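Continuing from the previous page...

OK, I double-checked the sequence for Ig-like domain-containing protein against my notes and this is the correct one:
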Amino acid sequence: MEIYKRISSGNLIRWSIFYFLPVFVTASEVSLQETVEGFIGGSAVLPCSPEEPPITIQDIHVRWKIKYMQNVYEIINGQVSVEEQDQQYKNRVESFPEEYLRGNFSIKLYNLQHTDAGEYTCYIFMKNKSEDRSVELLIKEKSEKLIPSEGTKPRPEMTVMIISILFIGIISSLANSVTGVST
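Thanks. Re-ran it with the corrected sequence; updated structure tokens here:
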């Protein structure tokens, strides 16, 4: 009876709103981390864009890091800078300069290795604000393509023969249904 009085008086509803509201607000602020998969020896594009594209690329500094420590790539005022780039990434990373004004500061990492796996962070420093984006890079072994042996390869003449037989069967069925002749 006591519970019924609490519910009907509205205290329980008010209490539950104040109790659970912070949980929902906190959950809505969680951002999802993007995941990219690549294969050993292959390449992968790691995406990075600010919430709003820049008006100009001047005064924009973009720095890519892995595990918050190693410098992977840098773009300063629209120019690539590899001066502080970690040796592991030399000649293996490129960006897309024609996309900078659209706010695309993604990078492409070539010749992927097991050591490339991990969390990459793209830091975007603009005049009045800064943003960062995280991307998890997963590296998988290169899958072997299955090459059929000679005995299992489809032969073009067999395919043509099967299609011809089906076509003749369909035509004769249609002809028999139109003329009323049954076999």
